[in-house]
Amino acid sequence: MVPQAERFPQNPLISPEQVKPSREGWEVVSTLNAGAVLYQREVLLLVRVAERPMSDRPDELIAPMLDTRSDPPRIRLLRIRRDDPDLTAGDPRMFTYRGQTYLTSISHLRAARSRDGRHFAVDDSPSLAPATWYEAFGVEDPRITEIEGRYLVSYTAVSEYGIAAALASTQDFKSFERRGLIFPPENRDVTIFPQRVNGRHICHHRPVGHHIGAFDMWAAYSPDLQHWGEHARVMGRRPGCWDSGRIGGGAVPIRTERGWLAIYHGADESQRYSLGAILCDLERPELVLARSAQPLLTPEAPYEVEGFFSNVVFTCGAILQGDTLSIYYGAADEFVCGASLSLDELLDTLTPSQTA
Amino acid sequence: MVPQAERFPQNPLISPEQVKPSREGWEVVSTLNAGAVLYQREVLLLVRVAERPMSDRPDELIAPMLDTRSDPPRIRLLRIRRDDPDLTAGDPRMFTYRGQTYLTSISHLRAARSRDGRHFAVDDSPSLAPATWYEAFGVEDPRITEIEGRYLVSYTAVSEYGIAAALASTQDFKSFERRGLIFPPENRDVTIFPQRVNGRHICHHRPVGHHIGAFDMWAAYSPDLQHWGEHARVMGRRPGCWDSGRIGGGAVPIRTERGWLAIYHGADESQRYSLGAILCDLERPELVLARSAQPLLTPEAPYEVEGFFSNVVFTCGAILQGDTLSIYYGAADEFVCGASLSLDELLDTLTPSQTA
Lengths: 356, 356
Fold this sequence. Notes:
By secondary structure, the first copy, chain A, is mainly beta. The first copy, chain A, is built from two helices and 26 strands. In chain A, strands 19, 20, 21, 22 and 23 form a five-stranded antiparallel sheet that branches. A four-stranded antiparallel sheet of chain A has the order 1-26-25-24. In chain A, β7 and β8 (100-103) form a beta hairpin. Chain A is globular and about 55 Å long. The two termini of chain A are 14 Å apart. The model of chain A has no long low-confidence stretch (mean pLDDT 96). At the A-B interface, β13, β14, β17 and β18 of A face β13, β14, β17 and β18 of B.
């Protein structure tokens, strides 16, 4: 049996009402999917903060976006009446209007810090906010990798041109250097490994096919972190299981004696998102040695089963201290939460014979 | 007005019945989408040859594929009765069975040679045949780039895992070294430029969004041809035009004094494929300086308007000799054809003011 992650009693750790919107007259609708790292003896989270203009017009949907064609770029609002015949709506996160999909909020990344990993102080302003063409609909779901004396942030850049994977680096989590798109649309859930293997950098990523293919996990290699190739499929969905619908990388993988441990997310066909674990070959991280049969965390707590997008636990970061692995996760696409488990206990259940 | 490419009177240059199937009992259904290069004073084409087992069972559909799990890999046939309720068919190129899309033929690449560029001798056996996981459904649509003393072949690798972009290199068009997938699914139409720009390699490629985005052309940069990044969108479709449905790179771009000339394909919403031209900035090839308003070749000849997949002209290669640009193209997904035009005349119509 896979050990069950124990939820922090302080959950939710961060809620939308705790966070100051970045603009006058706006509201924060979601705080979720935080990258996590130990920085200056604190747990530092880069929280995805999704916000939108407050509206007293229940008869309309609003898509906030950055207009990068204006100089300087500024926020533009697309307002669509709910009874517009060209509108297709239903998912709280997005709608489609005249063939183009828009998001109902725009996300930025914001730092939150904690001495104990449980009580967080959230910054008053964004750390990394949308700024480019490819970020016009928002920046989302950061993963933080400490590597060779700096911190890399791989994040999702969303625009009318698609959902792509972007990279930034920082030394201090105050100023960030953008290093461009590392994967073209459609791609997300990029986790860059914290060490080179045989001289090359590695990541897991999640491209999506259009005509053929599924929401599978892939690996890629890089000489310099900015240019990637040698793509190889890591694993796919498991029909009939909790991860039958789609899968993708979660926390940045952790090197253990037995292999690279990666916490990933899997959703079933009804979009219920849970977390599982895989162990990958140390030399060839595209090879899965073991995969947990059951999830180690699945939506059960009230803040997981109901929220902005219900029945979701989704991680972008975990922190290992001693034997304790603290997993930070987005709950119901609305809250930042935490849960922990014993690394040794988890590894003991990940044996090659359990590979699915 | 864009000059119209003049069709070779010898068209079709290569037809399926001229080509020997690679297996006993099989038939070649299509010869199409050939990469083109000048090699040893001949025009060398790498022709995509699509073939399938002959069948006397009109009540069933067959998907031939390489089973890479057997050792050695061998061809496996998926046979589906046309009245199977789990079958979705209609497109002659593919069908979907229980949620998985399959192809009705499997393609390899085969060399054809000509002294005059019009009369071709086709090899009796494949030059590059499916061999890996990612090629199980076939290898397709090669582009040949001569660069730094060798020939690179960027081609499409199709499998149950998706449609991805692969790279091989060769010195002699007899032995090919595979260099892996350079773009994960979904991606195709990769054209690698024949020179570095500011020390870096460049290509155009065509990723496809799933949730957001369209069939747009993108550019990427590479230090070593195998690892790619710095993705930037080049251009999109033009609503109401001949290229309103989807676009993608065609022939390998040609360096001219005015910019990089690229012949690309565009399809309208009814999947009628035509060819157009763009001129890209010499230093930043993701910037389009000019784009032809009208196509330079559109399906009109009998062998273009009717065939395996009707109303298609699609190029993977062109050869410049003096002022004459000879465009080799697949017609109706069945024949290899050629057409030529004057480079100078084409460039004269590509002025920045005509950019769409």
